[in-house]
Amino acid sequence: MSKKALYLLGIAVTIILGTFLYLKFCCNCCEKTTTDDTPKTASPTVQEPNFVPFVLNGSGIEYRTNDNLKFLKNSARLIMPVSDSITTGIDKLKAFLQANPKQKLTITGYATSDETNSTTFENLGLARANDIRNYFVSKGIPESQFDTKGEILDKWKMNADTLLGPADYSFETVDSTSTANDEWNALKTKINADPLILHFNTNQSRQTLSDTEKQKVADIAKYIENVKDAVVLVVGHSDNVGNRDSNIVLGQKRAEFSKDYLSKNGIDSAKIETNSKGPDDPIGDNSTPEGKAENRRTVITIK
User: From CA 196, how far away is CA 234, in angstroms rounded?
Assistant: First the structure.
């Protein structure tokens, strides 16, 4: 075979071998790069933040923090201590209300329909609103710049057995002093026209109040909080069993017991006066057991 033929044969073999190697290795590589058998990982689900923000938003004040005041289920008492961010908000609220005496803050407390109300307030939401108000007052904010309301809802955001921030805060400007005075005069008239009366068994007292009696306690507390120099008058009475002097003492003890009861339920004890009329002012017939039971009482009014 001539050198020229061998040369051409070598070129042909080189081309064939190069084509074979290209198809074997390079194409397999391309196939691997176009096929993705890597298992797919699902994106993690974004969880809703477990908080209810504390918000103060009015004309001249704006504060928000993701922390909040908290209550245990069925309880009207704030969980203490509160966080630093809440304390900061209360300090801002104090400065704002002191600089704006015509501004008033309404605290609306909430409770769920499956909670138990063991307070003297009309509902647990109102009891919570009053406890928040009392906490704010303890920080130096005037009582007269608060109103409280309570509402019952089907549910509220919780963490285990703790309700997260079950309250709202709304601001309003009080325009007329005379209108406010008319409101408080009307409330005083209502309280004294149908006073709260607590009845006693012999040497005993009744701890459980009806819904109507709870509302009367709430009305008295509201009046005392908002009317400067207002005084609650608690008068103790007895039946005619025994001598008059001992019944005067017994009536006074009943009045003091009622004062203690009211002070534990939101009424400042310094604004409660007591006295006793013993058997001197009966409303029932002392010759019957029913009449005697009516006479063993304390009557609570606004002085």
Answer: 10
Q: What is the pLDDT of residue 279?
A: 95
Backbone phi, psi, residue 133, to 5°: -60, -45
Q: Return the bridge partners of 235, or none.
A: 275, 299
Amino acid at 113: S
- Low pLDDT (below 50) residues in the chain: 29-35, 45-48
CA 272/CA 251 separation, integer angstroms: 16
Report which secondary-structure segment, H or E, holds 9. helix 3-21
What DSSP character marks residue 49? Answer: P
Nearest Cα neighbor of 72 from 168, 167, 138, 160 is 160
Asked if 255 and 298 count as a contact pair (C-beta separation under 8 A), the reply is yes
N-terminal to C-terminal alpha carbon distance within the chain: 138
* Token couple for 254: 């009943």
Helix, coil or strand: residue 288:
coil
